[in-house]
């Protein structure tokens, strides 16, 4: 092997994002190494593949995904609490600790987990539009999913040259991600964090929460967001299901509240 050229350390990297992986046989890379005078200082063992993971932070896809899930994107997410308003009114949630526990449950085994699985299925072009609506446990939540999904499709198709069918929000977002060729795992991560952020921000309108405390909740849940996104990316519809009955009851009882700020 030629020496005297630049030195590079070759490392195999494991990732939970299968859509962001491009695997290149080592036999395709070795001729280039031999002719460019690169000295390998770390020898790859026990494998015949190098995994190349795109990490370009200047990628337009990253900004596009962040834009779509942002509260500034006009889907009307500010008008929905996801049942939190009813939970606070009925004293299911009485303080910050209970709110954070509530959010963690919804993320891990409740509606956000269901949405993530459906989003991943839609990304793979599976027909889950009707299933997504059938799994929604309350009329206000169904209205929320449909109206935000329709708004997402309408505005996204005006911004970019794609065609996406109207569907419940998580299904529409999965279809949009596939049409735009966005990587699935980062899209799931950004979506879940945005949903939690929206729920926390809306909770400040119905209970006493300071800004520092709300941001702390989002930060505390970040590791759980990463785990759920990774798990959902490799899930199938057989993984649908969970257990967050109080969240479902709160969503169902919202429309019977005497005074309401939110639509769900």
Automatic annotation (TrEMBL):
Pfam families referenced in this protein's UniProt entry, alphabetically: UreF
Compartment list: Cytoplasm
Keyword Translocase: no
InterPro entries, per the entry: UreF (IPR002639), UreF_sf (IPR038277)
Keyword Cytoplasm in annotation: yes
A GO molecular function held by the record: nickel cation binding
This protein's UniProt keywords: Chaperone, Cytoplasm, Nickel insertion
Cellular component per GO, a single term: cytoplasm
Function: Required for maturation of urease via the functional incorporation of the urease nickel metallocenter.
Subunit note: UreD, UreF and UreG form a complex that acts as a GTP-hydrolysis-dependent molecular chaperone, activating the urease apoprotein by helping to assemble the nickel containing metallocenter of UreC. The UreE protein probably delivers the nickel.
Family: Belongs to the UreF family.
Protein name, entry field: Urease accessory protein UreF
Protein source organism: Donghicola tyrosinivorans
Gene label: ureF
